[in-house]
Design a protein that fits this description.
Blueprint (H helix, E strand, L loop, with lengths): L3 E7 L5 H10 L6 E7 L6 H8 L4 E5 L6 H10 L5 E4 L5 E2 L3 H11 L5 E9 L5 E4 L6 E2 L1 H9 L10 E4 H6 L12 H10 L4 E12 L13 H18 L4 H32 L6 H14 L11 H10 L6 H13 L3
Parallel strand pairs: 1-2, 1-4, 2-3, 6-10
Antiparallel strand pairs: 4-9, 5-10, 6-7, 6-9, 8-10
Helix pairs in contact: 5-9, 7-8, 8-9, 8-10, 9-10, 9-11, 9-12
Length: 336
């Protein structure tokens, strides 16, 4: 009998957390528990959960407010069943998610990580798009190839693993604001084994302005920190995986370059929001990070039409249009 713990870290998740919890409790597979790791919520979250009076729910409240990194770190020390999965408080499972995962585990008992297909939804729960297709079985090197070539959506929801494996690898790494921590965790869990996937869409990941996964301009500094931590992780990981090492040598430099260009665009937007030109020290900081994580791409930061266009607007009297264009882009990106 396969028993599963669903871990839900949350802080002030109302109203999305209600839909999230109801989707978990509506699972057709009965052998699960919901462990809510509350992070000093001050909204309706805890009161509503307690009012449910559902024996499948266990609530653990932190003694003090925690950062997102500290909040998700509690998963490792929580008591768990043989298998476990984590979910963002604004995401939802389809009723057959756990049932589908159990069948997947039974088909691929040798795999170390399991997932299903998914969809992105907006604030109103309307589908934005289906997530990119994932093969039924893949190695760490194959996962990296898809990730580095931007043929993979990545998030913390929808992945199931053995709890002992999660604890053994140390849980989700404490990267800055958890940027790229999911990638590192999945690679650590797959190791020399494989990840098995069901192609059907069985859960939803919500993208909205207040979501942790939303890419907002002020996070550019955290993106840099996360890239540096992910780069250091990869340097250690590939030492014991020759196939992954070959993928990193071939594809990682352009992956790093793309994300550093994104960080620069966010920094340009942030400067424009303040009505000023970006300062040279910020550009130099991003350049230095790129040179460290992808030495072969050093000096290529500004060689992009998109970056050059935003930089030109920021340097002109039209810099006030940059935040407006960003706002329009964000609305279009999350429109169903």
């Amino acid at each position: 009998l396969i028993k599963i713990s669903v871990l839900l870290p949350v802080r002030n998740g109302w109203p999305y957390v209600r839909e999230c919890v109801e989707s978990i409790l509506a699972q057709t597979y009965p052998h699960f528990e919901l462990v809510v790791l509350d992070n000093q919520s001050t909204d309706e979250t805890v009161a509503w959960l307690k009012a449910r009076n559902d024996p499948r729910i266990r609530i653990e409240t932190s003694a003090a407010p925690l950062s997102i990194v500290e909040s998700w770190a509690r998963i490792r020390n929580a008591a768990k069943q043989e298998f476990m999965t984590a979910i963002g408080h604004d995401d939802t499972f389809d009723p057959d998610f756990l049932e589908t995962i159990v069948r997947l585990i039974q088909r691929h008992p040798e795999s170390a990580l399991y997932q299903t297909g998914a969809r992105l939804i907006n604030s109103d729960g309307m589908t934005i798009r289906s997530c990119k297709a994932v093969p039924e079985v893949e190695t760490a090197a194959q996962y990296l190839t898809a990730r580095f070539t931007f043929r993979r959506d990545t998030f913390g929801t929808g992945f199931v693993m053995r709890s002992a494996d999660y604890d053994r690898v140390g849980g989700i790494p404490g990267f800055e604001k958890l940027f790229f921590a999911d990638d590192a965790l999945w690679l650590s869990l797959i190791g020399a084994s494989t990840k098995a996937s069901d192609p059907g869409e069985h859960f939803s990941v919500r993208v909205h302005p207040k979501s942790e996964s939303a890419s907002l301009p002020p996070v550019w500094s955290s993106i840099l920190a996360g890239l540096g931590q992910f780069s250091e992780f990869l340097g250690v990981f590939v030492q014991s995986n020759a196939d992954a090492r070959a993928v990193c040598l071939d594809l990682c430099p352009d992956f790093m370059l793309t994300y550093h260009r994104n960080a620069l665009i966010f920094a340009l937007i942030e400067a424009s929001q303040s009505g000023r030109r970006i300062d040279g020290a910020t550009v130099a900081r991003i350049e230095a990070s790129l040179a460290k994580t992808a030495p072969s791409r050093a000096g290529s930061l500004l060689r992009s039409p998109k970056v050059m266009a935003v930089a030109a607007l920021n340097a002109s009297q039209l810099r006030s249009t940059v935040p407006l264009l960003w706002s329009l882009y964000s609305r279009l990106k999350t429109r169903s």
